[in-house]
Every structure is written in C-alpha cells, then in structure tokens.
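agent> step 3/5: call structure_predict on target 'ATP synthase F subunit' (Kribbella karoonensis).
agent> reason: downstream docking stage needs a structural representation; sequence fetched in step 2, passing through unchanged.
tool.input:
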Amino acid sequence: MTQVVVLGDPIRTAGYGLAGARLLMATTADEVRRQWSELSADVGVVLLTAAAADALGPERLDAAAPLTVVLPA
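tool.output (status=ok):
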C-alpha cells in the first residue's frame, strides 16, 4: 500500500496525522534532508511545508517519484 507522508514543521503538519498521513517532523533544513533521504520505497506522495520544499530544492522536487506537493503558506 502506498503511503502519504507529510514533511516539515510539527506545528504546520500535525493535523494531517488525523487523516492518516505519516508525519515526519523536521524543523531545520538538515532534518528535512535527512528525513527525505530515509523515505521508504512505499511512499508515493509527500506533502511538504514551504520551508521543507526550500530545503530540498527544485532538483529533488522535480523527480518522477515520489509525487511532491508543497502546502500553501
């Protein structure tokens, strides 16, 4: 089964856990990059806070998989 992951600041992402998404908390750019590098193969969609997306950069977000969505600020 494909997982939906939400990556970013705990305050901005906590509510998505109620919908069944797996939460990956990260408050610094280094934490975001570490969490991203540890994504399992069954992750199909990653929702990112704007800060998390900035930490990863466009080259990672343009990859074919996993599908990434940047949450509105």
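agent> step 4/5: record observation. The chain has one domain: 3-70.
agent> proceeding.
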